[in-house]
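Request from the bench team (R.T.):
"We need a structural guess for the complex before ordering more magnesium ion. Sequence and SMILES attached. Just send the tokens back."

Command: build protein-magnesium ion structure.
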Amino acid sequence: MTTETKCTNSVTGRILVIDDSISVRRLLKARLGNEGLELLEAIDGPTGLKAAKEQSPDVILLDLSMPGMDGFQVLRQLKDDESTGNIPVLVLSGMQTPQDKVAAFDLGAIDFISKPFDLTELRARVRSALRLSELLQMLSQRAQIDGLTGLYNRAHYDRRWSEELAGSKRHDRPISLAIIDLDHFKSVNDTFGHPAGDTVIKGLGALLLEHSRESDVACRYGGEEFVLILPDTAPADGVAQCERIREALGKMTWARHPERKITCSIGIAGASAGTTLSAAEIMEAADKLLYQAKQGGRNRVVHVDLSPDALAKAG
Ligand SMILES: [Mg+2]
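Reply to R.T.: structure attached below.
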């Protein structure tokens, strides 16, 4: 989602047209293309589905009668796929029986435009669909953001950690997971009040972002616990990054309680190569190490490399 201001009469966006008729595609390209809308074209269902997945358009204009896979089948597959299910689809069709319209709406189309269409009306409907698309994106993003820190929340983490791990296995790349927990956080809340506790949570959240690379994923797992997904990072390299976070936090002075320093404990588990462990197993290992860090006196980083080679060396 871009942050640029958009006024309602000059909505920008990417529109995917899936229609076997070259004249319809040409007409739409000419008439929508000259008002800030980028037109992507697909000549049949399979090409359209591929383009929808790969190019993530904001809105799809879908013809119903196409040779081979018809628009109903395309619509069903678009809606069944998590990556395309939220893209608003406007059906564009010469079929005009009420049954066709009902079927299209039942499958999840948001609008039905009969051919031949009036271009002014079509433009207005496309703009309205673009505004809807923008709202849907905003809602789905907000649903994955932690309100206090602005980091990703646990719902995002649960999905993302599995995805990142799967990606690292596929490409045989290292990956690490750090669990970061504030030390004696309950006593900060009890002694200085919850607003002070919130400030500490926000402070650690900001540090995680500051010490993250673009590819890292920082999340608030819940309460005073955070997770940092470190793609392309062996556990030993993750230690250096986490030590910087631990040290920076320990040096911070807090306006509400300048006399009281705040520290954190960190457990890192991951694999420098070739792990077959599941997302849950690595998470559990990191959690155990966090516990060890707490038992060992807190304010420290403990890590393990779970790759078969590293485990063999460690005996
Ligand atoms: Mg057609």
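Two things stood out. Residues 8-136 form a domain with the Rossmann fold fold (CATH 3.40.50.2300). The chain has a mean pLDDT of 92.
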